[in-house]
Design brief:
Helices cover 32% and strands 34% of the residues. It has helices at 24-32, 40-53, 55-58, 96-114, and strands at residues 10-21, 67-77, 80-91, 122-132, 139-140. Helix 2 runs antiparallel to helix 4. It is elongated and about 55 Å long. It starts with 9 loop residues before the first strand and ends with a strand.
């Protein structure tokens, strides 16, 4: 791990996004709440939040961070589900990995819960879209 001990703690925030691409039939099942494994959106939201909190256990050189906020927002669209995660902390290093991990695990959870009705679902476009705080300041990538 990189030594961040001499860095000042600052407020930091990161936003990541991704998509689970689905057929119209599967989107209709999600919208109607008729998926075989239950409420896929609520389950994916909780999975993403939990994953953000455990990022340092999953990513070997990530620092454990005292998260002050994590949210996972899911939007059902015509061609799938848009996933957005926001993570925040006051710490000596950023929360990009936590936001990215939240999006990824939320997407994997959606895939797992929907694979019985659609094996061709595709988790795509996972990326950091903005960050703030720290030495590099505010960055918007989208």
């Amino acid at each position: 791990m990189v030594d961040v001990g001499a860095k000042p703690a600052t407020e930091r925030r990161a936003v990541a996004r991704g998509r689970l691409l689905l057929s119209a039939a599967t989107v209709a099942l999600v919208r109607d709440g008729k998926t075989p494994k239950g409420d896929v959106l609520a389950t994916a939201r909780i999975a993403g939040i939990t994953a953000a909190k455990r990022t340092s256990e999953l990513i070997p050189l990530a620092h454990p961070l005292p998260l002050t906020h994590v949210s996972v927002d899911l939007a059902v669209e015509d061609d799938g589900i848009a996933i957005q995660a926001t993570a925040a902390t006051t710490a000596q290093t950023g929360v990009e990995m936590e936001a990215l991990t939240a999006v990824t695990v939320a997407g994997l959870t959606l895939y797992d819960m929907l694979k019985a009705v659609e094996r061709s679902a595709r988790l795509t476009d996972i990326r950091l879209v903005e960050k703030s705080g720290g030495k590099s300041g505010d960055i918007k990538l989208e």
